């Protein structure tokens, strides 16, 4: 049907958008030739009159695959893509650990990279020791126990790095090594990270037996209704240290120091990870990863370390929103601006020893601070309370998709699903373009605000990927959304695992119910096979260790089509057109190599056929609001 059709195909570098941006377009901001669509899409003139017939809705090929000429016809002018704020951090490494001071805190020492010795220098000396005399923090307060940084550099401690690299680094840095020993950073007023060697798997059990953490620094001590404050020695910006329980803290001073480092490197915004020397280079990954544009100046959303870490007291706590595995999320108000924010308090007692900062939180903070996309939740800053509790200050989103669906009587309309899917795919495409796998996409990790904007949250399990693929942990992705290759034991996976989750989410949006609700991994794979059929040889799954020949035999995708029929007279099943079903099938393709990418999915015909995406979707319902805001606080 030609009327009301919206061509959502867009130029590769210009399809990141939000409805707000659509609206600014709607209000007259548009570029290029052609006609501006009422919903903000700018349709090239050669497309607007093409009608639906020439590109029939039966054509399930994504535009980009149809033909080159067709592709050029499909271009839509949209707002400029928002760029990632700075280079990604690479986490995939083994870290050495150095115990510092009597508190048994552990500082990671990152093996040098052969590819970028200079960057190794920066990593080591940015994160572990200060760079200049101006940033030295009272070295006499720090006692380095064995093995020391220098020992590791000399290869006398156990090291993952080849000996020659250590030697190379040592010869290049010999002068600085001595300085390094002297200038060891004092532990900041948040616990230093315990970088377990199996850093890939935040949810995997960790062996902490050899980490006799004795210091109760969890930051979980918190009085109900407060931010966990204790007597503040100083509330002024000038005073940068305070004493508690016989120990001296240099929180703000340290923040300042690390902010300095950020400023030097143009890596503003990674305050926490700089403190912990988050690995900036990787001997393998660096070779393969693309060079990503570095900004000349600190970007929006970064922490200005010269101002120090702000306190959580800048915010008024309103109510607890939710609690996940890795954090408790509160709704709060910025005392100065009056803006609502969400504060995610990092749980200090998961996926780590007892004294460290969780790897999952580091990853999440690092990625979210560096990312800037309308479909990825924005982190404004990181703040702390007086008990070393660390909070991510995020933009406040009224709903999560799961909660929203639970409270709805009817499933979303097709137009609403399209709009939500477009936003989801845009966010996923942005993550993948920036070499990040989310690894935990599910409806409860998709937030929606009252404007109907969808944003991906919870990047605690996300990680950067490179090429060639490395073995990763299989303990990722919540069971219901987990790709079959992971369930069957593959250790090398890539962006396709997120696309499988997107397929599960699309089905859930259509049916208002999760697609595969397995109770165990075996049950999950069984449910998938029953619905989609038994994978054949070509899928590649049959070679995986978990695949059993006696797995249930089903014909491919028949049951899925029954669940999402092209027409329904009873209204009991969600109706899905040929084109929509094609997209769903491609998202749920068994073969990861054949599974549709986010980029191609964005170009799928389903988004162009009627009904058009509901850009005016707004999920405000009184019952939802009262459910999310407890009565006493709403009053
Ligand atoms: N910015 C936000 N605005 C409003 N609510 C939020 C926000 N971020 C998170 N939430 C709510 O808190 C819940 C938990 O957040 P999040 O998923 O980040 O925590 P987690 O501990 O990593 O969870 P999980 O157990 O899923 O890993 C979300 O499902 C959502 O309901």
TrEMBL record:
<dbReference type="GO" id="GO:0010556">
    <property type="term" value="P:regulation of macromolecule biosynthetic process"/>
</dbReference>
<protein>
    <recommendedName>
        <fullName>cyclin-dependent kinase</fullName>
        <ecNumber>2.7.11.22</ecNumber>
    </recommendedName>
</protein>
<dbReference type="Pfam" id="PF00069">
    <property type="entry name" value="Pkinase"/>
</dbReference>
<keyword id="KW-0597">Phosphoprotein</keyword>
<feature type="compositionally biased region" description="Polar residues">
    <location>
        <begin position="190"/>
        <end position="199"/>
    </location>
</feature>
<feature type="region of interest" description="Disordered">
    <location>
        <begin position="165"/>
        <end position="245"/>
    </location>
</feature>
<dbReference type="InterPro" id="IPR011009">
    <property type="entry name" value="Kinase-like_dom_sf"/>
</dbReference>
<dbReference type="InterPro" id="IPR045267">
    <property type="entry name" value="CDK11/PITSLRE_STKc"/>
</dbReference>
<feature type="domain" description="Protein kinase">
    <location>
        <begin position="315"/>
        <end position="607"/>
    </location>
</feature>
<keyword id="KW-0808">Transferase</keyword>
<dbReference type="InterPro" id="IPR050108">
    <property type="entry name" value="CDK"/>
</dbReference>
<dbReference type="GO" id="GO:0005634">
    <property type="term" value="C:nucleus"/>
</dbReference>
<dbReference type="GO" id="GO:0080090">
    <property type="term" value="P:regulation of primary metabolic process"/>
</dbReference>
<dbReference type="GO" id="GO:0005524">
    <property type="term" value="F:ATP binding"/>
</dbReference>
<feature type="compositionally biased region" description="Low complexity">
    <location>
        <begin position="45"/>
        <end position="66"/>
    </location>
</feature>
<dbReference type="GO" id="GO:0004693">
    <property type="term" value="F:cyclin-dependent protein serine/threonine kinase activity"/>
</dbReference>
<feature type="compositionally biased region" description="Polar residues">
    <location>
        <begin position="165"/>
        <end position="177"/>
    </location>
</feature>
<feature type="compositionally biased region" description="Basic and acidic residues">
    <location>
        <begin position="200"/>
        <end position="209"/>
    </location>
</feature>
<dbReference type="GO" id="GO:0007346">
    <property type="term" value="P:regulation of mitotic cell cycle"/>
</dbReference>
<keyword id="KW-0067">ATP-binding</keyword>
<dbReference type="InterPro" id="IPR000719">
    <property type="entry name" value="Prot_kinase_dom"/>
</dbReference>
<dbReference type="InterPro" id="IPR008271">
    <property type="entry name" value="Ser/Thr_kinase_AS"/>
</dbReference>
<keyword id="KW-0547">Nucleotide-binding</keyword>
<keyword id="KW-0418">Kinase</keyword>
<feature type="region of interest" description="Disordered">
    <location>
        <begin position="29"/>
        <end position="73"/>
    </location>
</feature>
<comment type="similarity">
    <text>Belongs to the protein kinase superfamily. CMGC Ser/Thr protein kinase family. CDC2/CDKX subfamily.</text>
</comment>
<keyword id="KW-0723">Serine/threonine-protein kinase</keyword>
């Amino acid at each position: 049907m030609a009327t009301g059709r919206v061509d959502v195909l867009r130029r590769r570098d210009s399809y990141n958008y939000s409805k707000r941006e659509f609206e600014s377009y709607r209000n007259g901001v548009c570029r290029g030739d052609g006609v501006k669509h009422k919903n903000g899409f700018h349709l090239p003139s050669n497309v607007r009159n093409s009608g639906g017939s020439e590109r029939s809705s039966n054509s399930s090929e994504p535009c980009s695959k149809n033909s080159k000429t067709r592709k050029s016809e499909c271009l839509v002018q949209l707002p400029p893509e928002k760029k990632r704020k700075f280079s990604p951090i690479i986490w995939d490494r083994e870290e050495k650990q150095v115990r510092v001071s009597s508190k048994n805190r552990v500082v990671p020492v990152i093996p040098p990279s052969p590819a970028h010795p200079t960057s190794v220098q920066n990593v080591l000396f940015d994160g572990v020791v200060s760079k200049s005399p101006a940033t030295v923090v009272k070295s006499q307060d720090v006692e380095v126990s064995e093995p020391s940084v220098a020992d590791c550099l000399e290869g006398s401690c156990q090291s993952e790095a080849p000996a020659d690299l250590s030697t190379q680094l040592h010869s290049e840095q010999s002068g600085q090594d001595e300085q390094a020993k002297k200038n060891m950073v004092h532990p900041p007023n948040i616990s230093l990270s315990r970088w377990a060697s199996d850093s890939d798997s935040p949810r995997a059990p960790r062996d902490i037996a050899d980490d006799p953490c004795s210091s109760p620094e969890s930051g979980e001590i918190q009085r109900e209704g407060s931010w966990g404050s204790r007597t503040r020695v100083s509330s002024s910006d000038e005073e940068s240290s305070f004493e508690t329980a016989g120990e001296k803290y240099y929180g703000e001073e340290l923040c300042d120091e690390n902010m300095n480092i950020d400023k030097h490197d143009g890596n503003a915004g990674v305050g926490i990870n700089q403190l912990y020397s988050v690995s900036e280079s990787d001997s393998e990954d660096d070779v393969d990863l693309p060079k990503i544009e570095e900004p000349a100046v600190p970007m929006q959303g970064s922490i200005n370390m010269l101002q120090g870490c702000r306190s959580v007291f800048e915010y008024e706590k309103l109510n607890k929103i939710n609690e996940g595995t890795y954090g408790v999320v509160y709704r709060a108000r910025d005392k100065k601006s009056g803006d609502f924010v969400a504060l995610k308090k990092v749980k200090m007692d998961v996926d780590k020893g007892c004294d460290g900062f969780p790897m999952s939180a580091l990853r999440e903070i690092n990625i979210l601070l560096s990312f800037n996309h309308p479909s990825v939740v924005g982190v404004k800053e990181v703040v702390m309370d007086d008990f070393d509790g660390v909070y991510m200050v995020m933009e406040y989103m009224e709903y999560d998709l799961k909660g929203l669906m639970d409270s709805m009587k009817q499933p979303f309309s097709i137009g609403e699903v399209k709009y939500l899917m477009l936003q989801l795919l845009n966010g996923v495409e942005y993550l993948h373009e920036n070499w990040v796998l989310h690894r935990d996409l599910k409806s409860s990790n998709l937030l929606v605000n009252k404007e109907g904007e969808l944003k991906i949250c919870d990047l605690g399990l996300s990680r950067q990927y490179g090429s060639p693929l490395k073995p990763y942990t299989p303990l990722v992705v919540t069971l219901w959304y987990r790709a079959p290759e992971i369930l069957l034991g593959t250790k090398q996976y890539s962006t396709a695992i997120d696309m499988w989750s997107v397929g599960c989410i699309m089905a859930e949006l259509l049916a208002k119910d999760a697609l595969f609700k397995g109770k165990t991994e075996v049950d999950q794979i069984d449910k998938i096979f029953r619905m989609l059929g038994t994978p054949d040889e070509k899928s590649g799954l049959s070679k995986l260790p978990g695949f059993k020949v006696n797995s249930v035999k089903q014909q491919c995708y028949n049951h899925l089509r029954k669940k999402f029929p092209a027409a329904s007279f009873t209204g009991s099943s969600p109706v899905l057109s040929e084109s929509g079903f094609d997209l769903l099938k491609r998202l749920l393709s068994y073969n990861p190599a054949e599974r549709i990418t986010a980029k191609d999915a964005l170009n799928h015909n389903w988004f162009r056929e009627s009904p058009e995406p509901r850009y005016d979707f707004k999920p405000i319902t009184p019952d939802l609001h009262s459910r999310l805001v407890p009565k006493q606080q709403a009053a």
